[in-house]
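Fig. S4 source data, part A: sequence.
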Amino acid sequence: MPHDHHHHVDSQMGDRKLALAVLVNFGLTVAQIVGGLLSGSLALIADALHNLSDAVSLVIAFAARRIARRPADAGMTFGYGRAEMVAALINYTTLILLAVYLAYEGVMRLFAPEDVEGWTVVIIAAIALIVDAVTALLTFAMSKTSANIRAAFLHNLADALGSVAVIVAGTLILLYDWRLADPLVTLLISAYILWHALAEVPGVIRMLMLGAPPGLDITEVSQELAAIPGVASVHHLHLWQMQEHEAALEAHVVLEEGRWGDADAIKSALKSALAARFHIHHSTLELECAAHACPAPRLIGHG
């Protein structure tokens, strides 16, 4: 019970941090829109809409985090843990689209550099950078262990880099009238966002596609099971992630001839080995006697 209480406290603390990050980002969006209208800067209003997408990504991450904690029910017998992976995929997809759009804008401005607003834009961008840094600090620790929060964190990081780009490019233009600074920095940021997002997406899709958990070798797992005394062979093996940090296994296990009386003890040994060696605590094992095993079975899959 102490462990459950600690997990509950951590969850509540994480929820408060995310809620605060959402409020801060919505506040910044309003401030940027007001600043853009007062200064006549379309760039600031565009950045405000970009920041609004960050706030929405945090809302999606927050909602998914809450949904994921719901217990299993008759409609979702595996529980709702994968809601976070769905949210991560949504946020990474929008992040990739955002990066492609930034690249497009950057290329267009290389051929037709536009005037960048003066100090008003730079100052508000600096304020935005501070807010983005605060939001990043609120979500950084959670992003290490959650693909869902990591996607929202990268959204915010991209916005922070955008603010840096405005400050750097604006300063270079004000000091040296070097208008190409803005599109060049934008292209660098776009490449950085794409690099991170595209590196994360395959893992999220792999989990949603019921792929084997990264770091677990299915051959090694099957050999470990087959090495248990009383086990003749293993087939129809399935290995997947129920949730981001919870692996599951299903397999048919053929017992050696004359060992059916030890079935319960062998199953217990199999489950203990899975938990101790591979940290697999959710396993479904179908035991078969040697005389009635599946004909011509395959190790992986059915048929």
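Fig. S4 source data, part B ends here. Residues 129 and 174 are 19 Å apart (CA to CA).
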